[in-house]
Amino acid sequence: MRIFNLSFIITVLLYSSTVISQSASNFNKVWVQGGGVSFTTTFNSTGIVNQYLDTLYSPYFADGNSNICDSFGNLLLCSDGYQVYDKNVSVIDGSDTLVPHAIFNRQDGWSPASQSSIFLPMDNGKYYFITPTASDHEINTYWNNPNSGRALFDVMYYNTIDMHANNGAGKVTRRMVPMLQNVTLSKTQMMACKHADGKSWWLLKQASDTNMIYKFLFAQDSMYGPYIQGFPDPHFSKWDQSGQSIFSQDGTKYATTCRGAYKIFVADFDRCTGTLSNPQVYDVPTQKYAPDTTQNDQTQGLAFSPSGRFIYVNGWSNIQQIDLLASNPQSSWVKVADTDTVLNAFEMYSSMYLGPDNRLYISNWNGLGSEMSVINNPDIKGIGCSFCPKCLRFPKFHFTPSVIGGGVDAPPCMPNYRLGPLPGNPCPVGITEVQPEPVVFSIYPNPARSEITIRYSKTGILELADLTGRVVRSILLPQAAGTQYVNLQDLSSGIYIYRYIVPNRSQNVGKLVLVH
């Protein structure tokens, strides 16, 4: 039997690709941000222009926000994480409520989770819009239960948008197509990177707590995946209200962190195959969270410098820099900033993004601020990077009793739209006939009382689901082969369905009986 693997998909993409057009350089020319009152930031060659987008009951473009421009740099689409709007902040056809209703209602119609939406452009006016989120079951069973100790994302959808429809007004042509279901996902930590062909997109999404990464490949007419890759460390915190994943500007490195982790994960990235390699975990030095002299600051977000040499990591009240080219990067940490104003006016930091002008812009976690802080020279080591407190200034809105206040908040979640194809043809060419090695897998004892032993031959994930199909346990099997012991005492007696999932292979499915 002929099996077409991922290299064949990549070959087709490369064969049909052309040199990326100059228009891609304009996709991120305008940023949309702000809660209650929304603003646009336009990056012109002569400087930055900040102005109002919507001042009366604006959607909340805060944390979960994203947007994209057309080939001329004009604002085209923007999102609050749950709906898609046009340049006039009107909901486009078919984009009302692109997430399950329970989370939409609970969060008042906008997403407070960073990196919970993203736009990926294709040819001929087509766009993908991706939203990881929580199902109605997750919200009603766990989020709405104050004693559950759980508030995760468990589903992920993509939508397709045709901007040629409705005489150029746009339309969602496919709604809420499932990418992942019945899984446990971080509420943050999602980012995309151009494939080596310069046209298609890799999308990486972190699982919850464990360092397991779901990878997808978006092409003009198809989505491929998920492809799963896992690493033993770090185990990210479940306190993932803030977090960020990012690629270096050239797409060769990937980094991620989330609140409470106190660590960053960095790996090399292959734009041809989507493979992460050379994993590194760095401990972020603990800093005191002002004004508390005992509590450690939290890791909130991170960003690469333009060259990819430095990574900046911000907590609530501190910003630190690590040098990846140092002989010992762990010892190279430098604190480059603390609070950007007096303490009683400080709004705390959240995510940060590199602008088209190669400056870093740091968002605020809360408050009604009309400024953002900036790092002017992020490729300079140490405090020479030039942290400028509250140097990006927005118009001040004059509130009235009938208008609810708002603030600048967070830059939009955007990949590097300007990244082009790799020179030459570095990806494999031709149709590969694959004769896969057999996958060895076993669970015993079965029936089991409180503990099972898992033997396996390939990196993958084991999912246990009850008879309704709800996943009750997701277990990362990180090494290429090994044995793992798992305690299941917290699960009720009964029959469970297990799935051993290995990327690009058929699933091993069976029944597991628990008898306590």
**Arithmetic mean of pLDDT:** 86
End-to-end CA span: 44 Å
- Structural class based on helices, strands and sheet pairing: mainly beta
The low-pLDDT segments are 14-22, 428-436
Secondary-structure map:
Elements: H1 6-16, E1 30-33, E2 38-44, E3 47-54, E4 66-69, E5 75-79, E6 84-85, H2 101-106, E7 118-121, E8 126-133, H3 136-143, E9 155-162, E10 171-180, E11 185-194, E12 201-207, E13 211-218, E14 223-231, E15 243-247, E16 253-258, E17 263-269, E18 276-283, E19 301-304, E20 310-314, E21 319-323, E22 334-337, E23 349-354, E24 360-364, E25 371-375, E26 387-393, E27 441-444, E28 451-456, E29 460-465, E30 471-477, E31 482-487, E32 494-501, E33 508-514
Antiparallel strand pairs: 1-2, 2-3, 4-5, 5-6, 7-8, 8-9, 9-10, 11-12, 12-13, 13-14, 15-16, 16-17, 17-18, 19-20, 20-21, 21-22, 23-24, 24-25, 25-26, 27-28, 28-31, 29-30, 29-32, 32-33
